[in-house]
Design a protein that fits this description.
Layout: H1 2-10, H2 20-32, H3 38-74, H4 78-100
Length: 101
């Protein structure tokens, strides 16, 4: 089973770029072609989806890190956006407080 998983990565399918639908199609075909059992296919699908999720989280974290450290230089209005987000948070808190009165 893990040989098949390794082949998938070697073929460029990679967990980071593999959508859930494509992963399901890939595993379904592998099961139909008798390359893996249904149980192994389910395990493979879970592994692919989990690795895709991890890759997505890693990429998101790296993007957020870059935006926090260099956001202002990358986006001219980054500072203004941050200021507006802070103002919205204050207004939302004030509104929530008024609703409880």
């Amino acid at each position: 089973m893990f040989g098949l998983l390794e082949k998938a990565f070697m073929m460029g399918i990679g967990a980071a770029s593999l959508t859930a639908k494509k992963a399901e199609e890939f595993v379904k075909k592998a099961v139909e072609d008798k390359q893996v059992t249904e149980s192994e296919g389910n395990q493979l699908l879970n592994t692919l989806l989990e690795e895709g999720k991890k890759a997505n989280e890693t990429l998101t974290a790296k993007i957020e890190e870059v935006m926090k450290s260099r956001g202002e230089s990358l986006l001219p209005y980054w500072k203004k956006i941050q200021e507006l987000e802070a103002r919205v948070a204050v207004l939302e808190a004030e509104l929530a407080e008024k609703k409880t009165e």
